[in-house]
């Protein structure tokens, strides 16, 4: 696979690496939080229960899951700034919206602000799906066909899984699958930027 492109330079500055790495840290913090909090909660099923249930009012490990949301909500917008520097197009805007939406999820827990929670969660889903899909167009123009195809595949697969989570009895699994696919895209693209391997965007 060719590597993530830069619009004006084939060098990655230290600040770009730090911003890109923030995406890896943010995604990792989120995944670790829901994995550990889910394993510790009696009666909780990662197959049938949504991630947000781990941060609902009264949940025993609510603080840890909220911290995971915040880690994602800070790390991904920072990563988006690296994406903005390295890849022309609106993908970075979608990534920023994703992070800010997850902050909204964190401050609107189930059991206190359900309606706001679902609005923020929906915005987070849609913008997360849009991030690789928007990037695919830029990759295609740059001739980075492997990145373009992988980005489309990630975006479509994530959309299908997250759509299924709205009516599937195993919605916890569908949700995790959909989020993990696009989270993986963020991590791989961030790692590529950290390695300074590029294909120049048009």
Describe the structure.
The protein contains six helices and no strands. With 202 residues, it is an all-alpha fold. The longest helix is centred in the middle third of the chain and has 29 residues, at 114-142. It has helices spanning 14-40, 62-86, 91-107, 114-142, 145-164, 171-194. It starts with 13 loop residues before the first helix and ends in an 8-residue tail after the last helix. Residues 6-10 and 198-202 have low confidence and may be disordered. Helix 1 runs antiparallel to helix 6 (171-194). The protein is globular, with a radius of gyration of 17 Å.
Spans with pLDDT under 50 lasting ≥5 residues?
Answer: 6-10, 198-202
* General form: globular
Order of helix and strand elements from N to C terminus:
HHHHHH
Multimerization state: single chain
Q: Give the mean pLDDT.
A: 88
Concise account of the structure shown:
The chain is mostly helical. It has helices at 14-40, 62-86, 91-107, 114-142, 145-164, 171-194. Helix 3 packs antiparallel against helix 4 (114-142) and helix 5 (145-164) packs antiparallel against helix 6.
For this entry, give a set of tags.
202 residues
């Amino acid at each position: 696979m060719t590597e993530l492109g830069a619009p004006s330079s084939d060098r990655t500055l230290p600040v770009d690496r730090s911003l890109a790495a923030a995406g890896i840290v943010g995604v990792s913090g989120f995944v670790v939080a829901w994995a550990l909090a889910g394993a510790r909660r009696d009666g909780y099923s990662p197959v049938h229960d949504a991630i947000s249930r781990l941060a609902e009012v009264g949940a025993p490990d609510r603080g840890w899951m909220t911290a995971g949301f915040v880690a994602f909500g800070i790390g991904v917008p920072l990563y988006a700034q690296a994406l903005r520097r390295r890849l022309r197009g609106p993908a970075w805007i979608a990534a920023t919206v994703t992070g800010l939406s997850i902050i909204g999820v964190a401050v609107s827990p189930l059991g206190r602000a359900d309606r706001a929670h679902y609005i923020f969660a929906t915005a987070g889903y849609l913008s997360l799906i849009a991030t690789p899909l928007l990037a695919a167009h830029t990759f295609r123009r740059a001739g980075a066909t492997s990145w373009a195809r992988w980005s489309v595949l990630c975006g479509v697969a994530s959309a299908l899984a997250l759509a299924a989570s709205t009516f599937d009895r195993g919605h916890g699994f569908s949700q995790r699958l959909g989020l993990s696919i696009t989270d993986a895209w963020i991590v791989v693209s961030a790692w590529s930027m950290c390695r300074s391997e590029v294909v120049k965007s048009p």
